[in-house]
Amino acid sequence: MTPTGFLIQHRETVLELANKCSASETWRTLVEKIGIDKAMKENSFKVLLKPFMETCSFFDYGLNEKLHSEKWLNRELQEQIDGLNEKLNNEQELNEKLNTQIDGLNTRLNTLDGLNEKLNNGLNVPVDGLNTKLNTSDAPVKSIAGWTITQYDKYFRAFRKIKGKVHGVHLGRTLTDAEQKIQAKEQQLNSESHSNTATDT
Where in the sequence is the domain holding 165, given as residue range(s)? Predict the structure, then answer.
């Protein structure tokens, strides 16, 4: 059974606990009562709990007749949770790519350490030249102004999660004017935020 199906099957128990306990306390109680740890991990439960509760609350408000149809409820819940899972998968994929690039940088650094060790042992190895080559390689920059920098196909991009949404900035083939482009993006986001606030009021 999928995590979503498990939550739906035990909907009343989950909601009863979640409405009066923290997510961690709810998890521990559900492990003891219904063995939820056999259906999903704790992190997955905490990610799914809030949208699950919000969706259930929405259907409970003025839609009692539709709630009697388990098939309809399952479909609506599944669509919302699938959307959340897709966002989580996208973030996980980005993290994996970043980790791959960081591993590549670590490999270069390990190579440099090995050459330095040989030099210390009396071998005549042109380490300075290799240092220059490694330092000028296309290794990823960790961050600029709080934005994570990645490189794909010779092009740099900056990513940052703001208010629950991942935003990206195309920086081009070099990082010469990266900070200016990032600042322009932040100004755009601030302007959009103020515009939305003004519209809401």
Answer: 141-201
Q: Which residues contact 140 (CB under 8 A, 6 or more apart)?
A: 98, 101, 102, 105, 149, 150, 151
Residue 143 has phi, psi (to 5 degrees) of -165, 155
- 128 in any annotated domain: no
Mean pLDDT of the chain: 82
| pLDDT over 60 at 70, yes or no | yes
Distance CA 97, CA 156 (A): 13
**Total domains in the fold of the chain:** 2
Q: What sign does the CA torsion over 102, 106, 109, 111 have?
A: negative
- Beta strands, E only, 50-176: 143-144, 147-152, 155-162, 165-172
3-state DSSP assignment of residue 160: strand
Query: Which residues have C-beta within 8 Å of that of residue 112, sequence separation ≥ 6?
Result: 127, 130, 131, 134
Sign (positive or negative) of CA dihedral 143, 145, 147, 150: negative
How sure is the predictor about 106, in pLDDT bands with cuts at 50, 70 and 90?
confident
pLDDT given for residue 133 in this prediction: 44
Whole-model pTM?
0.31
In a domain, 120, yes or no: no
